[in-house]
Design goal:
By secondary structure, the chain is α+β, with helices and mostly antiparallel strands. The protein has one helix and four strands. The strands form two sheets. Strands 1-4 form a two-stranded antiparallel ribbon. A two-stranded antiparallel sheet has the order 2-3. It is flat, with a radius of gyration of 19 Å.
Length: 71
């Protein structure tokens, strides 16, 4: 029996698509907004950031940053 191409997707696709996908995406957006509102983020000034192009542009090495609580 042939497997359906969307059978192992995280949220899948088609008629039986995950009903929680929009809620998960909203939750991620709210969490990132809270972090941006609560903290000042700065990058390490001595670190060189190198990128590679794939399907999406990504850094070759982890990007080190500092979070400080806003007053």
């Amino acid at each position: 029996i042939a497997k359906h191409p969307f059978s192992f997707g995280v949220f899948s696709n088609g008629k039986r698509k995950c009903a929680g996908e929009p809620i998960g995406k909203i939750d991620i957006a709210c969490t990132l907004a809270y972090i941006a509102k609560t903290f000042d983020m700065s990058l390490n000034s001595k670190q060189k950031i190198k990128y590679k192009l794939n399907v999406m542009m990504e850094s070759v090495f982890p990007v080190m940053c500092t979070f400080k609580l806003r007053k």
